[in-house]
Automatic annotation (TrEMBL):
Residues annotated as domain TonB-dependent receptor plug: 58-145
Membrane topology: Multi-pass membrane protein
Name of the protein: TonB-dependent IMP dehydrogenase/GMP reductase
Pfam families xref list: Plug, TonB_dep_Rec_b-barrel
Amino acid sequence: MFFLNVRRVSRPGLLLCGCALVFSLNPAFADNTDNAQTQKSPSTEFITVNGVRHTTTTDPDVTSLFKRSLGFSAYSAGGVSALPVLNGMADDRVATFVDGMRMQAACPNHMNPAMSYIDPDMVSSAVAIAGITSVSQGGDSTGGTIEVNRKDPIFSKSSKILVTGHAKGEYRSNGGGSGASGSVTVANNWLSVRYTGSYSHASDYHAGGGQRVLSTNYLSFNHAVTLGVRKENHLLALTVGQQDIPYEGFPNQYMDMTNNRSTFVNGKYTGDFNWGTLEARGFWQRVDHAMNMLSDKGGHTATTGMPMNTDTRTAGYSIKATILLGPRHALGIGSSFDHNGLNDWWPPLLNSMMMGPDTFHNVNNGHRDRLGHYIEWKAQWTPRFSTELGVRNDLVLMNTGPVAPYSWTSMMSMADAAAAKAFNAASRGRTDTNFDVTATGRWQALDSLTIEGGYARKTRSPNLYERYAWGRGAMATTMIGWFGDGNGYVGNLNLTPEIANTVSTTVTLHDPHGHGWEIKVQPYYTYTHHYINVVKIGALSNGLSMLQFANHNAQSYGINSSMFARLWNSQTYGQGEIQANLNWVRGQDFVSHAGLYHQMPTNGLITLRETFQNWSGHVDVTLVKSKESVDRLRQEPRTPGYALLGLGGSYHWRYFTLDGSIDNVLDQKYYLPLGGMSLGDYQSTGYLGPLLGLGRSFNLSLTASF
């Protein structure tokens, strides 16, 4: 960190009162934190995850930050594109925000979910709230909310010019993964300019025992520039950025990503007033996305593979105001709008009778617009008892233009041609009026006992592909689906929104005289009316199925738990602690009487950590039970249980931090319970089975701060 003397200019300091989330069932009553950082020490590069500080991760995927969060799991996709699951609710059922931007995946296989657009090294804070969430934390979701935020602008405490930043390099032995990232900030006490950039690359990884897992390579670049201005109690930040992913393999999809370019502009204003606080955001994003088959699936030359292109535009705003009604009551009101425009077309393949001679228009000028408003009342009735009550309305408008198959006359396109004619003749515009309600309470019964609980009614409308994927040919249907199961999917114009009713309680026992130990248990139950599942409408030549989205009724229930204990704290041995979490979930479709798809089996993580002066080390044990509850209709594979051992350590010296770790120390061979089918291996070798997990990997990173 460097300071340059300049002519002194009198500027008042900023007092920002940001609302920090209480990362549990009821996030209503939070401590005030300072969002605008000032003169951060170069020795502290942390990510705050669910309120707990962590050092930066060597994993290139942001979803890895949440591995200790209650109810969280993720299912495999590309190397930087895993899809989140909260309490058994996956992907679009989770409201995911990156810097306040709610982004829809611009791909029929969801290869570019929201968290794939930010590198972990750019993250300042992240939170995953499973189940009951405040109406202010977004609608159009049933599983929970994930919020990922970049680092706020940094300002100098005085009129001196502040120059600060960091550079990081990393290496992962499994797959030859490498990465580099960094940032630099130049600021005075009212103006800040920051550049951040990152690069990440890996070849195919190897499973335990040495077997290569095809279609797991990737290359990614991220760049962003943030301009920040502050005056008194007001902060304005504008971020402009671009991401390029020239290629990314997907082991559980028939296709791979051969290009993904995202350009975005994101503005944020926060202000403190006598009456309360105000936050306003506006954003725009363009994504140009291309899919085909990488070399291990048959290449993507002019005469091989299957080119598929997508172009999307996303724009929106959000306004949130918190009005103080007195020392014990606050009223929150807000408005938001998201526009998602989508074009999805598949160019003809040269000299192909099946994929030509015309362009396949999968989604033609489709749009999904969401206008939402909410009001919530937070009350602190006594020092030990508080409540939150919120109501939200979301208006979702969807439509799309006429579509076309590869050919209207070819025998190979007969099924698609007939489906396109029926689709074009149908009325395609849809308007959903959705309502959410959240009611929660928090009672500190004892100094060592806190009980939180409540009820939420959450609603989600179908996405564009669930309603508008129209193809009926075997090849066209297998190009639709973000589930990694190899089945083919067909949309349904008659789908209605999902309505999830959730009740949940969180019981927390903790050390009343200091943070020496804590035990948290969170049971929950969700009944979903009109749950969007599938029915079988045909069979594929490889033994898998052609499925159509349909509304069913379903339930899911489970228990999340975590514990923490400080084992020792002395000058001789430093500080030792143990952390553990355990998650269990079950889901059932009331029509098919099968398990819901992508329900993680019972799983836990135990970590023993020691910190001594500038050194810290940890031992991780990951435990996963065999997967027996499966979705029979999707032919979801059962997987055996496994245990993985991990080791890691970190040493900090002045401006440098060295991190090292070993994943899967014993090189255990195991299958990913949510990994789907290994379609990359199937297309290359003919083997069709569950996806193998990562084998032993030696990881090393070095960070230099200034």
